[in-house]
Amino acid sequence: MKILPFFLSFAVFAGFCGGQASGGSAWEQIDALLEKNYAAQNIKPNAPAPDATLVRRLYLDIVGRIPTRDEAAAFIASTAPDKTPKLIEELVGSEGYTNHLFSFWADLLRLNAKSNNNQLITPHYAEFIKAALRENRPYDEFVRELLTTDGAAWDSGAIGYYLRDRGMPLDNMSNTVRVFLGTRLECAQCHDHPFDKWTQLDYYKMAAFSYDMDANYRPKLGEELQGYARKAGKKGVKLQQVKGMKEAYNEMMRPLRYTAIQREEKDLHLPDDYKYDNAKPNEVVAAKTMFGPDAPGNLDAYAEWMTSKENPRFATVIANRLWKEVFGIGLIEPVDDINDYTKASIPELMTFLEEQMKALDYDLQAFLKMLYHTKAYQREASREEILPGQLFHFPGPVLRRMSAEQIWDSFVTLINPDPDASPERLIEAAEEQLTMVHKVHESLKALDKDELLEGMKAVAATASQGAQETRELTAQIAEARKAKDEAKVLELSRETKGFRNDIRRDIREHIYEPGWQKLVASGKASEVFGTEEAAEPFATKGEGMRMMGSKKSGSRGGAGLDGKDKRDYMAKGMALGIKDRQELREFVEFMVKMTSQAQRAANLPSPAPNGHFLREFGQSDRDVIENANDEASLPQTLQLLNGPYAEALVSKYGVLGREVMQEKTPDGRVDVIYLSLYSRYPTQAERDYLAPLVAEFGDAAYKDLVYAILNTQQFLFIQ
Fold it and tell me: What does the pLDDT read at residue 220?
C-alpha cells in the first residue's frame, strides 16, 4: 500500500440534490408538528439530503447495509418523482429489513447462546424473532407471546425469553419492565427505589406474575424413576447398580435439559431481611400491577395488562424506541428510564406518535414507513454535538456512526454476491438438532416405567464404571494442568470423552432406540415427525448426536459445504470468465470460505466470539440490555487496514474486486469504488487528484484507494 498515506489525508465531500417523499396525512402531521416547534424555537430545518446521501442512509437505516454499486447508481440516475417512497416500500419488509431489525431486538432481549446453556434454543428463539419481523406480527401480539409461552422448544422458540434468564425470575421481571415499559425497577429489588416511587413491595408484587415460569425440565416420570433409585437399595438391589442407574438417568435426560418452560404453582416470598413496615419478612406476595387497573394474579392477565392500549407506557416506549432508531435520538431520553415527571422534548409530537402506534394496531412496518417518509428524516443530518440534557429539535436526523452490525453487513455486501440470502444450511442444521432432541423426548415417553427401568439397569454397569473413571481422569487432568503439561491434558481429555461416548452408546441402544421403535410401531412417529422422518432409524441423521454434546462444523458461522456447492461455485467461476485451473480453484476456495463466514450479522452466532470483527467494532456482549457501543479504537483501524475481511474485500474474487477489474478505464474503476463505498460518484476535484496516482501506481492504486476510503469518517458514518 505505497500510496495509502496520500489517500488517508484526502478528504472527500458530496453535493447532490435529492428527492423527497410524497405527502401523506400521518407523516405530514409529523412534519407540521416539527415545523411548529421550529418556529417556536427559532430553528431553521436542514436542507433536503442529496440523492447519494439519502440512498445510503435509507439502505443503512432500513436494511442495515450500504447499497450495492448498482442499487446506488439506479437511485441516483432515476428522475422519477416517487423514487424515494418506492424505495422505502421496497426495503421495509425485505429480508434485509428482517436481518437489521433482528439486531435491534437481539440487543434489547440480550439474545445470547453462551449464557445459561442456551446453545440449543438460541437458534430457534432467534428464528422466532425473525419470523415475527418477517410476518410483521403486531408488536403487542409479539410481546404477549414472549411473556406467556410455555412448553418445549419444538413447540415455540418463544420459550427462549424465559430460558435466557433461567434461574433468575426476579431479574427477568426487571428486564421485562425496562424493555417494554421503559421503567427501571432494578433498585427496588433490594430496597425502596431511591429516585422513583417504586417500593420493594411493588417490585415483588410485579415479580409474582411471572414467578411460576420455570425452566427446569422435571417430567413426572423422572421423579418416579429417581424415587425408585432412592428406594432400590431396600429392595435388594446392589448399591453399585443404584449409583449406576442414577448416572444412567442423568445421562439419559441430559439432551432434554434447558429445552422447556413449564408453569408451576409457586409462592413468591419476600426476602428474610425485608425491613419495611408494610409487610413481614418471608411473607407470601400476591401479584399486583405497578400502575393502572389491577389485573388478576395470573400470567395471561399480566401480559394483557402489559400490552393494553390503556397501559400508559407500552405504546409510548416502543414509539420512542423506533423514533430513536430512525432519527438517532429519542424524544424521551433515556428511552428506558421513564417516570411520572418525564417529559418528551416535543410533548405534542410524542403524544401523536403514541396515538399513531395504537391506531396502527402496533404495525411496526407501517409505523417505520411513516417516519421514513417525513421531510425531517429526508433532510441532511445535524452535525452538532448533543450534550447530555440538551434538547434536540430534529431539524434532520442526527449524524451517527454505523453500528458494528452495519459496518460488518456493509463488508458482507462488498464480498458476498447475495448478502441478504437466508443461511439455509444453518437453519437446517438447527432444525435437525432440535428434531433429534424431540425424538429423544418422544422415545422416552413411548416407554413405560418398567421398560425404562430395564433400560437403565442395562446401562448401569457402563454408567457406573464410566462415572468412576471420569472422576479419576478429571483429577489427573487437574494435576496435568497444574504441571502445565498440555499434551497430557489433551490425552486424558480424549479418554474422558471416550467413556462418555460409551455411556451414550449404551443409552441409545437400550433406551432411545427401543422407545423409537415402539413409537414407530404405534404410528405416533409418523403423526409427530412425518412419514419420512419416521422411516429413519434413530440417530441416523447427524449420527454424532449433537444434542448429546458433539459439534458439527460451522460453529463460527458456517454449516459445512458439500461437493454440489463446490461444483456450483466452479460453474459460477467459469460463467464469470475464469478459465485458468489454478484461478478457478482459488475462486472456489474463496467462495467456500466467504459463503460460510461473510454472512449477515443476524445469521452468525449471537453474539459473535471475542476477537471477531463485530466485537472489535462494539457489538453488544448481550449480557445487559443495549450494551453495544460505537466508540473508535486502534484494533478497529487495524481491521480496516489489514484485517482478513478488508483483504477479502479487495480480492479479485469478491464482489467489489471483481466489479473494479471488469471496468476497462481508470475513471470507470474509480467510479465503481466510489459508488460501492460512498454511494456516489467522485467529484471532478477527486478525479484530478487520483489520476496521476493511478497512472503512476497502476492496479495497486485501486486497492489502496479502497483501504483509504474504509478508514474515512465519510464511510463509517451515516450522514
Answer: 56
125: region left, alpha or beta (phi > 0 left; psi from -120 to 50 alpha) = alpha
Task: Return the bridge partners of 717, or none.
Answer: 401
Give the residues across from 382 on adjacent strands. Answer: 398
- pLDDT for the residue numbered 396: 97
Reference 410, options 593, 54, 677; nearest CA is: 677
Q: Are 239 and 249 in contact (CB under 8 A)?
A: no
* The pLDDT of residue 5: 46
- pTM, two decimals, is 0.89
Q: What is the arrangement of strands in the sheet containing 213-214, beginning at the earlier edge strand?
A: 151-152, 260-263, 213-214
Smallest CA-to-CA distance from 65 within 642, 529, 655 is with 655
Distance CA 415, CA 547 (A): 33
Q: What is the pLDDT of residue 566?
A: 76
Q: Determine the pLDDT at residue 217.
A: 62
| Residue 412 CB partners (closer than 8 Å, separation 6+) | 65, 419, 598, 599, 600
221 contacts 444 by C-beta, under 8 angstroms: yes
Q: What is the pLDDT of residue 174?
A: 96
Could you give the 3-state DSSP secondary structure of residue 717? strand
Closest to 295 in 3D by CA, of 353, 372, 210: 210
Where the chain has pLDDT below 50, the residues are: 1-2, 4-23, 541-560
Report angle CA 486, 491, 494 to the nearest 5 degrees: 125
Are the C-beta atoms of residues 319 and 305 closer than 8 Å to each other?
Answer: no
Residue 213: its H or E element: strand 213-214
Angle between helices 220-231 and 239-253 (to 10 degrees): 170
Of 381, 379, 420, nearest in space to 400 by CA:
381
